[in-house]
Amino acid sequence: MIKLSDFSTTAPVETNKKKIKKEVDRLAQEIALLSEKLYANKKTNLLIVFQGMDSSGKDGVTEKAFRYCSPSWVSVKGYKKPSDEEFAHDFLWRVHKEAPAQGQIKVFVRSHYEDILIQRVHQWIDEDRVTARINAINAWETLLQKDNHTVVLKFYLHLSKERQEEKLTERTQREDKFWKHNDGDWDEREHWDRYIECYEDAINRCTIPWTIVPADNRWYRNYIVNKKIYDTLSALNLEWPALKSERFS
């Protein structure tokens, strides 16, 4: 049983920040090369899910991982409150149509897990419906794996409550951060403990495991994510496709 309180939100004290930041950039360049090979082969694809409390760095970590990649083979979908059209469908409708095609990497900034987090915290759905949705999520992710050769990576950005307060406060004090401020983030913060309970339950009931990422230190957070993505792509043993040509055969 995973308890988030057992996981640190900070980098190990002996970690060399300067070296790690250089490694983050090197890994990003390797990710770009491997993602191009993935696109060239078009035999498998990658779905990456980022979840975490407000200000945990979902956008920032996405930029650091894919900064050298072409938008031809890496795209990002951010999820907010469902539209009227989305509410008129089942909760997975809006995510299924965004699943990656062969050769592509798709990043979900927030995801289908919002429907068993915020709706559960505010008791907009009951526990029977939560269980039904968790089962549906597991079935959907398994379908992607088996039917479309999708590799699914899920990251929970593990931010401390103290660090979140610092980052939310920063958004009210720095001109370049004003655009990120949302009064609602402070309202949701009041439900911190319940959110953690719901995250733990989702993580423990998922078929595909999550990576718990210490998120208080951005540079270390970026390293853990980049390393996991790089290792996953490397394990696919991707090669450049052979030349297909009658003229040059």
Number of helices: 10
Q: Give the CATH architecture.
A: 3-Layer(aba) Sandwich
Strand content: 5-15%
Query: What is the distance, rounded to the nearest whole angstrom, between the alpha carbons of the first and last residues?
Result: 57 Å
Quick one: how many beta strands?
5
Largest sheet: 5 strands, parallel
Global Rg: 19 Å
Class from helix and strand fractions: alpha/beta
Question: What is this entry, summarized?
Answer:
This protein is α/β, with parallel strands linked by helices.
Please characterize this protein's 3D structure.
With 249 residues, this protein is an alpha/beta fold. The protein has one domain (17-234): P-loop containing nucleotide triphosphate hydrolases (Rossmann fold, 3-Layer(aba) Sandwich), CATH 3.40.50. It contains ten helices and five strands. Strands 2-3-1-4-5 form a five-stranded parallel sheet. Helix 1 runs parallel beside helix 10 and helix 2 (58-66) packs across helix 10 (218-234).
Offer a few descriptive terms.
alpha/beta; Rossmann fold; 249 residues
List the SSEs and their pairings.
Blueprint (H helix, E strand, L loop, with lengths): L16 H25 L3 E8 L5 H9 L7 E5 L5 H4 L5 H4 L8 E5 L8 H4 L5 H22 L1 E9 L2 H10 L12 H7 L2 H14 L4 E5 L3 H17 L15
Parallel strand pairs: 1-3, 1-4, 2-3, 4-5
Helix pairs in contact: 1-10, 2-10
